[in-house]
Amino acid sequence: MNLKISRLHHSTSFAVMFNRRAIDFENYTNVDHNWDNSVITPELVSAQYHKTNKFNIPALSKRIQLTQEKDNARLLKHHHIIHKKFPIGRQVMIRNVMKTGKTDPNFIGPFTIQNYATNGFYVLVD
């Protein structure tokens, strides 16, 4: 059973799925399992469903949103992200991802930006 607490919403998967804590691992072999199923009524199930939709799901959503905002703030603090596009006609270098040896160059280029493609990609000319 997965009882690991998620970093995103600070709850276990079991608690999110079944809306309760998992029982401890105990030996239940000698326990009498004569449960009274008449206790569970459609009204109780409906009440639990509405309670989950009204309280638990919004609380989980808020926790997830706060965690994502903290993660985004940390990313913006520690990474240099360029929000402005490079102007057309500017010369740029490309990181050499096919580098195989220590003496191979880290960057390839220079290339000239000719145009912008869809999704913010650059059209480069050699």
Features:
126 residues, alpha+beta, 2 domains, 3-stranded antiparallel β-sheet, 3 strands, 34% helix, 15% strand, elongated
Describe the structure in your own words:
With 126 residues, the protein is of the alpha+beta class. The protein has two domains: 13-78, no CATH class; 91-125, no CATH class. The chain is 34% helix and 15% strand. The chain has helices at residues 13-18, 42-78; strands at residues 91-95, 107-116, 122-125. Strands 1-2-3 form a three-stranded antiparallel sheet, with no helix packed on it. Strand 2 (107-116) and strand 3 form a beta hairpin. The chain is elongated, with a radius of gyration of 28 Å. The mean pLDDT is 87.
